[in-house]
Amino acid sequence: MQREKLVLIGNGMAGIRCIEEILKRSNSFDITVFGAEPYTNYNRILLSTVLQGDTSIQDIMLHQRSWYEENRITLFTGETVTQINRNEKTIFTDQGRTVAYNKLIIATGSSPFILPIPGADMEGVKTFRTIKDCEEMIKASEQYKKAVVIGGGLLGLEAARGLMNLGMKVDVVHLADALMNRQLDMVAAKMLKKELERQGMNFLLGKNTAEIVGNQRAEEIHFTDGSKVEADLVVMAAGVKPNVEVARESGLTVNRGIVVNDYLQTEDCDIYALGECCEHNGVVYGLVKPLYEQGRVLADHICQQGENGYQGTILSTQLKISGVDLFSVGDFEDANGTQAVCVLDETKSIYKKLVFKNDILVGAVLFGSTKEGPGLLEMMIKKQDVSEIDKLSLLQSDGENSAVCSMTQEETICHCNNVTKGAIIEAVTEKDLQTIDEVKSCTKASSSCGGCKPLLTELFSYIKSDDFEEFVVKQSMCQCTMLTEDEVIQQIQEHRLTSFESIVQELKWSNKKGCLKCQKALQYYLKIMYPELQQQKSESGYPQLQKDGTYSLTPQFYGGLANIDDLQHVLDVAKKYNVSDISFSHEQRIELHGIKRENIREISTSLHLPILAQDQTMVTIKRASYRNECECEQKSIFPLSYKLDQAFERLTMPNRLAIGLSSCVHEEHQLSGQDILIIGEERGFETYIKIPNESLSHLLFIAKDYKESVEMMKALIQYYRETASYLEEFGVWVQRLTDVHIREVLFEQNFKDLLCERLHQDQSRKASSLQQ
After folding, report:
1. Does residue 480 have a known ligand-binding role?
2. Ranges for the Nitrite/Sulfite reductase ferredoxin-like domain (predicted)?
3. Tens of pLDDT along 186-214?
4. Whole-model pTM?
5. Is 442 annotated as a binding residue?
């Protein structure tokens, strides 16, 4: 099976997160990554913490070269893609390299905006965007002591704080009359200015820069109002512009960014764009949360596993400066139809403002205390109606740990990486994590923008305190024991308990006879663990007792295929024994009804056909209705449905499992609701798995022919039988283990062969017991 060539232009946070998501869903791509910088993927957002001296460059590296190698990704660093040939599907680089692609992702990010003024290219004028910029600013601080940062937004203030930490005197120049005027209202902006002035920062607001003056190196900045300020280091932090040149030159539509649809797809269906270089519904995003959300949507689409497109992101801002707690989200300016709730405590330098529209939170600004930030963001995302809530109570904290104490375990701490409070509690308590860095490494919380670090730190302190009394609720197997299902299975294996009686005695069941739930569950586990010790009665589970006291039987026609002689024989047997009704089930089976108990064995023998089980051994194979009119039909699925029916006959399963087969993608709608869907395509049999709460199935593997499809399916079903909990639905099992893990198991040849062999052995034992 030939793998598709996927090329990523850009080795930044957005592009590599998208690759991570693709790797979770599929291994069918040969991936090549080009990065203009000479580094592996790093957290650009935390460069300000490096400049401020809080972290090192090594600390912000997200992936080492070994990660690329382990995932078979070809990485070219320090190499820029200069041209895309869309007709030939190739890219060209500044190193003379030519690489072909089937799918192309452009994630070129953005570049700092350089003011078009005289002197902007002078020595001593820097930008703040890359590791190189950071290193040059640190080096400059060793020789020069007077810096000016142009730009009073988020990046500019973080850069200024870093330069101050390096011992420089810093002026911040801002065109507007308020700092962070896009993220803060006037009250919060004034409080921020006051706090930063207290720390030693100086501000020149309402200033329009005219030119940078000096003898080879910057010495002064002149403004349009005639004033000037000394500077031997000038840092441009007045915004960014998307890197769209290579896309524009290839003929793709570009406005401010590369124009994409809801699936991050350009007008060329094989070229995608995401991150700071793309424009979705007129918006170009520059924060990490929307970039990660775009990566998930793009991965779903390129792996044909999702149909929900990107719908935009609610943006929140948190300043990363020591001693300053600031959070803002949404539309916080008063407007027609909105209502605001404010709290101002000047003695403690605390200001909080919430803006509501029709009892829905639409914006918030927090200064001085930001504990409520994550909860407010989640409230906005969910569009929670607060008409029955005292709105002022949303801003009142009771006690030191009130913010984390009042959160439910389902609420999100880290929105960038979707990490909940419960997930962090479980990780810290079960893995005995001792530091915030260990929590970040284990859960990924606060590993991206770092905005949730204050709340994460508070939660970690709370977990380690004497006041912590929460625990992650684990469901016991049943009312007869306090052990969870996993713990029971572990004990059965460790003590080699081979009977129901030995289990309830050894594990101290409160009810020695067990309950209906554990009786069935334990018998199932014993069958799976020790199939050689289990006996099966020849008629158990096959005839089904009906309400009127009669029975029904289902003759097994493998793959739903029957010839005229077989059908006639069934009719003859039905007439002979006065079978009252014959029906066709929704699972494409023939069912005989109204059978008397004394006739069950004779009818079963006379049919000369296997009798299909109707209990927990059920694996349903359903085909899309046959049509010989679709031009795209590539492979007949009749032989495959026949072989799969034979392969899974009489197997004990954790839960009923439905498998659908179609010769054509246009017929798959007939098979909605199936746990597994197999579609015959030109490249082979594509096998999809259904995930709970997701509208589109995930592609698990592609088998080149009938034989490989059957072998892969045998291994998949056997792995489900061996690792799923009793009554655990197939989709829930997939979600728990992840399709990436399952795929790794199936593509390990030795493991796959062992699974197939164990399935064959179990099926042979059952066939032998039926013949006794």
Report:
1. no
2. 544-607
3. 999 999 999 999 999 999 999 999 999 99
4. 0.58
5. no
